[in-house]
Amino acid sequence: MKISLASGAFLLAVSMAAQAQDGGLPLWEVGVFGGAASTPAYPGAQEKTSRALVIPTFIYRGEVFRSDRGGIGARLMRTNDLELDVGFAGSLPSDSDNTVVRQGMTDLGTLIEFGPRVKWTLARPATGSQVRLVLPVRAVLEFNSGVNGQGLAFEPELVFETRNVAGGWGLSASASLVWGDRKLNNYFYGVTPQFATSSRPAFDAQSGLIATRVGLSSSKEITPDIRVFGFARFETYSGAANLASPLHVASSGSSVGIGLSWTLGRSAQRAAN
To answer: pTM for the whole thing?
Structure first.
């Protein structure tokens, strides 16, 4: 899911760095991204994880394979209002020793998510603005001393995007519901007998709602090669399926981040669309 379950606000930041105006875009761009973000260690955690990162970036706007502001994926079908692709997302790891209720438990590893995604444009209120419904279903893989499947995630999301903000800023606002199957919820909230203590009883998680999220992000082109952005996200766990877990201690969480992207080179060839 876009902005993944653990520390995925950072991946949202990287995606935001690729935003650009529609029409006549280069087929590819290379550059550097730098940013910082603070986010809950996992949904329902009391502790925050802060990250700073500088990485190379590559944007490619091919007919099928794409790496752009919508993420990384393979576009399978596209009309004026409907698009079907295979998307990818990810999240950064979380050290259990830095989380009071998880001390002594296995660390949460790096997560990579992939699967089909439908993007449906519901309305275009004005030039440069659109309202979209995004429906991704993704398998979750954990990289932590090997590769392990950690279930399925589903995050229906309503998104409003506009480039009509004063001062040349682009704005994106979103609201979503994050659902996980039993295996994914156990990854975050399950406590096996070997990790049970007097203050952390064994717990077998159930499938269902993980979080309800709202987010706001904005970006601005400072020069043709430099773009800045910021984002904020709030999530509530009211109605979540596993509030009874001893690992679920917070009623809400928030994430913030800022960053900058610098394009170092681009192709003369333009993308078809």
So the answer is: 0.85
